[in-house]
Amino acid sequence: MAKPQETYNKKEKEKKRIKKREEKQQKREERKNNSQGGDLESMITYIDEDGNFTDTPPDPTKKKKINAKNIEIGVPKREEEVVEAVKKGTVEFFNDSKGFGFIKEQLTQEKYFVHVNGLIDDIQEGNKVSFELERGMKGMNAVRVKKI
């Protein structure tokens, strides 16, 4: 069998690999020698009564007794606000050729997008309208729009 030929490039790569391995070993030994002791006590971190990290154990006299039955697991049910379903506003802008526009609500002065598909009556700019809101792809949309 023929002996594999070692080229100059292969020799250089092997030298680099060996050098990296030696440097890594040397760094590992330096870290071991310079470490301040790896015992468990030096690695433990405690949390005080205010929630801050500290290296001293907590004072047992400040310990609070908590009843496990009082802990709620999960998201608490929120009370829903009674929101008026039908809102009133004025048509700020409406483009008949493109089929969309914006309605400004009277109470909050917020603008909502409206599309021709959400109209019950034909509308024009400046009309007073009543509408309902529905979540669209880019936010709230006015639907079931009627003239007042």
Structural features:
about 150 residues; alpha+beta; OB fold (Dihydrolipoamide Acetyltransferase, E2P); five-stranded mixed β-barrel; two-stranded antiparallel sheet; 2 helices; 7 strands; about 25% strand
Show the helix and strand layout.
Layout (H helix, E strand, L loop, with lengths): L7 H27 L5 H4 L2 E2 L5 E2 L32 E9 L4 E6 L5 E5 L12 E8 L4 E8 L1
Parallel strand pairs: 5-7
Antiparallel strand pairs: 1-2, 3-4, 3-6, 4-5, 6-7
What does this structure look like?
This protein is α+β, with helices and mostly antiparallel strands and 148 residues long. It has two helices and seven strands. A five-stranded mixed β-barrel has the order 3-4-5-7-6. Strands 1-2 form a two-stranded antiparallel sheet.
- Major beta sheet, specifics? 5 strands, mixed, barrel
Rg over alpha carbons: 36 Å
CATH architecture of the domain at 87-147: Beta Barrel
What distance separates the N and C termini? 99 Å
Average predicted local confidence, pLDDT: 87
Low-confidence stretches: none
Structural class: alpha+beta
Shape: flat
SSE pattern, N- to C-terminal? HHEEEEEEE
Number of helices: 2
- In CATH, the homologous superfamily of the domain at 87-147 goes by the name Nucleic acid-binding proteins
* Main sheet: strand order: 3-4-5-7-6
Provide the CATH top-level class of the domain at 87-147. Answer: Mainly Beta
Number of beta-strand segments: 7
CATH fold type of the domain at 87-147: OB fold (Dihydrolipoamide Acetyltransferase, E2P)
* Strand residue percentage: 25-35%
Report helical residue fraction: 10-25%
Organism: Reichenbachiella agarivorans
Protein name: Cold shock domain-containing protein
Biased composition (Basic and acidic residues): 20-33
Domain CSD: 86-147
